[in-house]
Automatic annotation (TrEMBL), chains A, B:
The keyword Protein biosynthesis does not apply. Gene3D superfamilies: Immunoglobulins, Transglutaminase-like. It holds the Pfam family Transglut_C. Its EC number is 2.3.2.13. Keywords: Acyltransferase, Calcium, Metal-binding, Transferase. GO terms for molecular function: metal ion binding; protein-glutamine gamma-glutamyltransferase activity. It comes from the Eukaryota. PANTHER family: COAGULATION FACTOR XIII A CHAIN (PTHR11590:SF42), PROTEIN-GLUTAMINE GAMMA-GLUTAMYLTRANSFERASE (PTHR11590). Belongs to the transglutaminase superfamily. Transglutaminase family. Residues 306-399 form the Transglutaminase-like domain. SUPFAM superfamilies: Cysteine proteinases, E set domains, Transglutaminase, two C-terminal domains. The active site is at C314, H373, D396. This is protein-glutamine gamma-glutamyltransferase. It comes from Dicentrarchus labrax.
Length: 725, 725
């Protein structure tokens, strides 16, 4: 039953409007007579009839004031809750008795009671909720100031000027040049997205490029991402996403509903949204998630075709979602949570199963710990929650079957998560578990029964990071989600979480007096040091096992390359010193299995008498690098050249190599394909471009192929208008 | 990307299991050797090897104890948290050294860490979370008691007996006869659905027929509904619904997630669910919502075809949802809210727009007040919320675009709604607005500007009713949702609701000193009395307007038949007496427009000097009746006859008349079609049946045609087993 037919009949007096972009017709007849016959002709005009000659949306005046200069778009873009001006040129100067109003309409069937038809008056006559004033009158030309309310609907409005005549309303006809885009306004104290700090606004609303952290918490890597929210077509693509979601227009002033709908729409699950997730390592039917340079191409293609884009993994969902949010004016940032208990069922147990001999029981282990997971935070007020829970909120666009979210997640208050107040919407319990899950090690006996033998309360959620303001450095924000482990505050939070239904493991396990740790030093060969520490009263011998695997960043095993039993050191006694066993994993042992995965996972398990020990270590391999160089005059509209260079460091050829580059406000998305790059040989790729925007700008390049994924680099340049920086 | 391919690779170690019904293969090889070679042969059997001869699920013993006798199904049905017995006959009596366990599996890739593979042991050896005991051993036959945990997964399990031998596990092979269904248990204090009162359990879990209230709060009507949760195929259909929703099996013990998923799946929107909503009055492509006798046919057809069923309106969604809930063991009931502000956007304003002359401005009015709306309540614990919010929870399966719910709604705590604690999940604000919205009357001036002139705080949510326990009478439960209007508690609730983001109208309007009320007396002609009361200082004349329309039960206007200006009484003074104007609406004025709508809406608006008045009255027309008679011996498996009689009371023929009947546990769904029933002529339809269940039973019949909808009747009979009641 589509709404395009009249099936709304009997359910709604008019169909619920959900399309912002598809309204091209004239809303009004040119002249709309008043209904009542009995009205005396009290508004007979003085002199000649008034008419509108021209309507000027004053882009040069408005855009700087509204921080919307960077949008590469024909129409005016302004932010709500703040005055913008329109210059109307009439047929003659206004007289005392003249009466007119501006009308702003959005979507189909616009209505004053729903905020989709707003009449703005400029005299004593009462109009709609947006206020109006005459800023300046000079002859026939009048400069009008209009201030949309701080909770106005966000989207694309149509503008009309209506003149009151004695018999009815005389209006301008539909003119797409006077359409305007209204956004959220982080500069307006009454707006739900208000952010007081200017540097923070510059980063979280205005910055169109950034870095996303990956890897492991002890060896963090980063990749660039072009958010590109000001590039041509992106704003329309974001509104297209809302239209495709069928979100009623009159809800689009509500920040909570909008970000929630956005988190649902960025993934394709269940609503034909923007991106299709694929973790299978087979990307032959689309683009590998590692190969993207940014959001722009993805959003433009989705808006042009309506077909979901292949493929994404968590950083792609987060990067594209960040563009959507910032484009609409919402302060947002990308977060990386290291050791993330993703795909949890809302309880605090990530269960790893081991066999009786201590080796990993992969067939029966269902949970995994993601090396890292990326989501977004938005900075908004939460009027639907008790005081104190506003500020940063988690929203996650990566689809997951096992949360209630039904392929959307959040907004969940970060403060509520820290306080364990999981009784508030949305999906707080799920996010809480992602950062707080305990890792429970189970022994599975021959009969299939599980017995927990160790609980690691610190492995999950070891570090939560985002990019620092104004710099590509990582900023540790773990303390915003979690109190220090074991502190009284932390205990209170965990107790609350359990009260609110998050199950925890409470096995009474004997204290382990045997511990084992793994340290790794990287090179082509991997050197593993396994240290055993024995705090029991007697010397003992540990029967141990080393499992080495190549893992996806989700922690799921791609290929095991080492399953080795060994004996821990003999005859060590009750000391604080540890005894060490060394392993060397030569490159040729793991390299053939790396494929597109660059993480190695080592698990050591050991048994002595009644005691069991385990340790897990994940390392990320280093990738070769890409070189980016720029030459030319760094000035708007002056030609520049960018050169991407790369040398294949391996002793095997790289095949099917895709290179891509983009730079918001600088260079549009470009690609180059190399069918083969021979061992030790180099390539060099030049592109010319003409910068569009000034200020600090970034170009990102990514090299991606089946054997070598996501080699990325970036270069920063400062573009000036007139020759000085 | 379907999960049937290996796209889970890299994301999950195994695909997330979401299908309960599609598991027919053997889970195990007949003999599963132990892994370890080093295990000494310590369990050498004494005497001959032990094997299983027979497994008896003891249905005759278990079903009465678990209140599952009524299910018309081959396999055992039991409730969790309570012991059931299984009789295993071995090849010889058990010896001291013998070791065995029962294993219960559900879904694909079952796992002990997810509760989908549960091993039950019967001696000292530790097993899975369900407890086991040997109730009785008699030679080779052993009666085993198994007690699933009170939070076990709900659904269809497969049963195996595994004998420990020296080399491995010897198991029975897959036997569908030993499959069992595990349900929620309202009799178990540890179960989240525990309901202490036995009479309440009898009604809310066990009753398979009931009444649903419709009409208007001052003239309530009711229609029967056959829930039929015990009829053949219905339990499998409910599990089919969960499978179709792709709800992970291991979440199906969680009552909150399950009811939320159910509320999404009962409507077809966005997930290919059970029912398609249609309020358009054109039901040519399916069955009219008024024509159903109950849920059974709908559920069976959906489970058989996987195709959504056409068509439903709110009582159908609620009736089918009730069957789903009760079938799985969840205490639930159908609720009717009279004057429901459905399709709200979460604020407390239902805006009705009027023109300057006081006539309704239908073109600009977007909101409507439903004569009534039906949803469900479930009685569950809410561990995810602060204490005190457990008990009845609202769940609503009728799809609506304008809530965040994305076509599902709830569970929302009724207590939280009463207290205005809208900061808790799920969709509390939306339900709150449905029962508390203020009706704001706006005048729309010639320029399109709205000015509120009256706020009616009591019109919406005038009465919330459900069927009484053990009787078809209506029970007023309004007080569970709302404090008395204007009380201190009510004010506190409304203040909290506003704190939590529910916008209210706060126009400062002058007290109206003119009031108008409408009273109606029904007959074929409608007599309308309009009373004006003038409490001003001076006499005045009211310019008034009467609008009469046929409305859908959603309050949306189908057809206007009267738009009449009139003058209120002259020269009345400041008294408490009212002055009356009478109207007569002859039958021939409204009858041609009734169609399938049986509600008339009258709106009187008036103006005098500065004051405006309005009143709304909705009436439901009475329908002719159907007669049901039953004859024969009221005994299980004895033949009985039911006769449905009807006389066409109108002076026009009824065409395309569908009759249907069903009686849970009595008579399966039957239909009869009459192409025409002439004016004043009668029909008589006989069916024979053999009762399946004893106790108080009900047969429902419905007559439905384009010109006359939902003529319904029922008859109660008491069926006995052996000849006495």
């Amino acid at each position: 039953m589509s709404k395009e037919t009249n099936n709304y009949k009997g359910r709604y007096s008019e169909p619920v409007p959900t399309s912002n972009l598809q309204n091209d017709e004239n809303d009004f007849p040119e002249f709309e007579p008043f209904d009542e016959d009995a009205t005396p002709r009290s508004f007979a005009p003085v002199g000649a009839a008034l008419s509108v000659q021209h309507v000027d949306m004053c882009q040069q005046l408005n855009k700087p004031n509204h921080y919307t200069t960077a949008y590469d778009i024909q129409n005016l873009v302004v932010r709500r809750g703040q005055e913008f001006v329109v210059r109307v040129t009439f047929s003659r100067p206004l007289a005392e008795a003249d009466d007119f109003q501006l009308e702003f309409l959005i979507g189909s069937n616009p209505s004053p009671s729903k905020g989709t038809l707003v009449a703005v008056t400029f005299g004593s006559r009462h109009g709609g909720p947006w206020s109006g004033q005459i800023v300046e009158a000079q002859g026939e030309s009048v400069l009008l100031g209009i201030t949309p309310t701080a909770d106005a609907i966000v989207g694309k409005f149509r503008t009309y000027v209506a003149i009151v005549t004695s018999g009815g309303m005389q209006r301008t006809s539909r003119d797409a040049n006077t359409d305007l885009y209204l956004l959220f306004n982080a500069w307006c104290p009454q707006d739900a997205v208000f952010l007081a700090d200017e540097a923070a606004r510059r980063e979280y609303v205005m910055s169109d490029y950034g870095v996303i952290f990956q890897g492991t918490v002890s060896a963090m890597s980063q990749r660039n991402w072009m958010y590109g929210q000001f590039e041509r077509g992106v704003l329309d693509a974001c509104i297209y996403i809302l239209d495709a979601s069928r979100m009623p227009i009159y809800n689009r002033g509500n920040i909570i509903q909008l970000v929630r709908k956005g988190s649902a729409m960025i993934n394709s699950q269940d609503d034909n949204g923007v991106l299709v997730g694929n973790w299978s390592d087979d990307y032959s039917m689309g683009m590998p998630p590692t190969s993207w340079t940014g959001s722009v191409k993805i959003l433009l293609q989705y808006a042009n075709t309506g077909v979901s884009i292949c493929f994404a993994q968590c950083w792609v969902f987060a990067g594209v979602f960040n563009t959507f949010l910032r484009c609409l004016g919402i302060p947002s940032r990308v977060i990386t949570n290291f050791n993330s208990a993703h795909d949890n069922t809302g309880n605090l147990k990530t269960d790893l199963i081991f066999k009786t001999d201590g080796t990993p029981d992969r067939r029966n282990t269902r949970d995994s710990i993601w090396n890292y997971h990326c989501w977004n935070e938005v900075f908004i007020v939460r009027p639907d929650l008790p005081a104190g829970l506003s500020g940063w909120q988690v929203v996650d666009a990566t689809p997951q079957e096992t949360s209630d979210g039904h392929f959307r997640c959040g907004p969940a208050s970060v403060t509520a998560i820290k306080e364990g107040l999981l009784c508030h919407p949305f999906d707080s319990g799920f996010v809480f578990a992602e950062v707080n899950s305990d890792v429970v090690f189970h022994k599975r006996d021959r009969y299939g029964t599980l017995s927990p033998y160790r609980v690691d309360k610190t492995h999950v959620g070891q570090g939560i990071y985002t990019q620092a303001v104004g710099s590509p450095a990582p900023m540790d924000i773990t303390h915003t989600y979690k109190y220090p482990e074991g502190s009284a505050d932390d205990n209170r939070t965990m107790a609350r979480a359990e009260e609110y239904g998050c199950e925890r493991d409470h096995s009474e396990l004997p204290d382990t007096q045997l511990t084992v740790t793994i340290t790794v030093s990287l090179g082509h060969d991997v050197n593993l040091a396994v240290d055993f520490q024995n705090q029991t009263e007697h010397s003992t011998t540990v029967q141990a096992h080393l499992a080495g695997s190549v893992v996806f960043y989700t922690g799921v095993i791609s290929k095991s390359f080492r399953d080795q039993n060994f004996t821990g050191p003999h005859k060590y006694s009750n000391t604080r010193m540890s005894e060490r066993v060394m392993f060397r994993i030569p490159a040729q042992e793991y390299m053939p299995h790396l494929g597109s995965q660059l993480s190695l996972q080592f698990i050591v398990t050991g048994q002595a008498d009644d005691q069991s020990v385990s340790a897990i270590k994940v390392i990320e391999m280093q990738t070769p690098s890409l070189t980016l160089m720029v030459s030319g005059q760094p000035q708007v509209q002056q030609e520049m050249i960018v050169t991407v260079s790369f040398t294949n460091p391996f002793n095997f050829p790289l095949q099917g190599v895709h290179l891509a580059m983009e730079g918001a406000g600088l260079v549009t998305h470009r690609t180059r394909y190399y069918s083969v790059i021979e061992p030790l040989s180099s390539i060099s790729w030049k592109e010319s471009f003409f910068p569009r925007l000034d200020g600090p700008r970034c170009i990102v390049a990514v090299l991606d192929s089946i054997s070598l994924r996501q080699v990325t680099s970036s270069v920063l340049i400062c573009i000036v208008h007139t020759g000085y920086c």
